[in-house]
Amino acid sequence: MWNVLLSFSGLVALIQLLFLPFFPESPPYLLLQKEDKAGCLKAMKQLWGEGNYHTEFDDLMKEKAITKGMKIMNVLEVLRERSVYPQLCTMLLLLLSLQLCGLKIFQTANLQESIIPYVSLGVSISELISIIFCSSIIDRFGRRMLLCGGYLLMALILVLLETSLLLSDQFFWLRYCSVILIFLFIIAYGIGP
Predict the structure, then answer these.
(1) How far apart are the first and last CA of the chain?
(2) Of the residues 65, 123, 138, 168, which has the fewest C-beta atoms closer than 10 A?
(3) Torsions phi, psi of 68, nearest 5?
(4) What does the chain look like in DSSP terms, one character per residue?
(5) Half-sphere exposure of residue 137: CA atoms within 13 angstroms, side-chain side
(6) With 80 as the cut, is the pLDDT of residue 25 above it?
């Protein structure tokens, strides 16, 4: 039934796509990029009702004044900008390593075929936990602390994961520790990088 589970996310995306035209544009988008004050105020009124949204509008106006001389770049312009190459390379390397190492780790751990769907479900739950946890602590600790802590935690987890994979032939229970470490790695990745 994994194909039904996978298609469920497509159904949710289709519902969102159908209802999207009925929602207003984002107020920051309307004001900062389209320079449409009336549209921004109308969207705020539609989203927040008759409440007091003038403070948020004033904040957007201040942001507009600060970014007035800056050019908004599209994706191709960002890719051509040499100053962001180190960040792009780091991000691509990290994303590719995450995509390529997952299958190999599950194969190395010699997990039974019947357990793999539950492991996949656990990966999704780990991602959800990391999103919820990160959004609740990011304001308290700041991005720099979460990035540094996340990378250090990921490094420690990878050392433990490698050790458990090397010893999984000798100790059967270490296979399941490997799966738990993968979940923890995903949570550390979601909280930090």
Answers:
(1) 33
(2) 65
(3) -60, -45
(4) -HHHHHHHHHHHHHHHHHHGGGSPPPHHIIIIIS--HHHHHHHHHHHHTTS--HHHHHHHHHHHHHTTTPPPP-HHHHHH-GGGHHHHHHHHHHHHHHHHHHHHHHHHTT--GGGHHHHHHHHHHHHHHHHHHHHHHHHHH-HHHHHHHHHHHHHHHHHHHHHHHHTTTT-TTHHHHHHHHHHHHHHHHHH--
(5) 17
(6) yes
Indicate the residue type of 74. Answer: N
CA distance 156 to 185: 9
Tens-place pLDDT, residues 57-91 = 888 888 888 877 777 677 788 778 888 888 888 87
Q: Would the pTM count as exceeding 0.85?
A: no
- By residue count, the chain amounts to 193
Nearest partner of 181 among 166, 163, 161, judged by Cα: 161
What is the C-alpha to C-alpha distance for residues 168 and 83, in angstroms, rounded to an integer?
44
Chain center to CA of 109: 26
Q: How many CB atoms lie within 10 A of CB 164?
A: 23
The string of pLDDT tens digits covering residues 88-142 is: 888 777 666 655 555 556 656 666 777 766 777 777 777 777 777 776 777 677 6
